[in-house]
Specification:
This protein is mostly helical. The protein contains four helices and no strands. Helix content is 81%, strand content 0%. The chain is rod-shaped, with a radius of gyration of 22 Å.
């Protein structure tokens, strides 16, 4: 009887710990996404928006890789719209949409 009781206790503790681990993994995943998102935003602002010169190939490649690292199809699609912009007005519209989307996807625990 004592053995059965201790087995039930261990089973309950196991499932409780598994649930806590699952919650921690979600938090870590969210934090990783936020870090990637914010790092991309910082790089984009510093190297594109604040730049007085043409964006070089290496910078474009870093930005492209950084946006792909987010693994977010919506952001990637908006990035591709920005990159494919045919005019300055279209590029400005697309960059505003990209920045808004990036900011909206940052998860802030309230």
């Amino acid at each position: 009887m004592v053995l059965l009781g201790s087995n039930l206790l261990f089973a309950l503790l196991y499932f409780q710990t598994a649930k806590e681990l699952e919650g921690a993994q979600v938090i870590i995943s969210t934090q990783r996404y936020n870090d990637l998102n914010i790092n991309f935003l910082k790089m984009f602002i510093k190297r594109v928006i604040k730049s007085d010169t043409e964006v070089d190939f290496d910078t474009r490649l870093k930005l492209e890789n950084s946006v792909r690292d987010l693994n977010d199809p919506e952001i990637l699609a908006q990035w591709q719209k920005f990159v494919a912009s045919q005019s300055e007005a279209e590029a400005q519209k697309n960059v505003k949409n990209l920045l808004e989307m990036l900011a909206d996807k940052i998860y802030i625990k309230s």
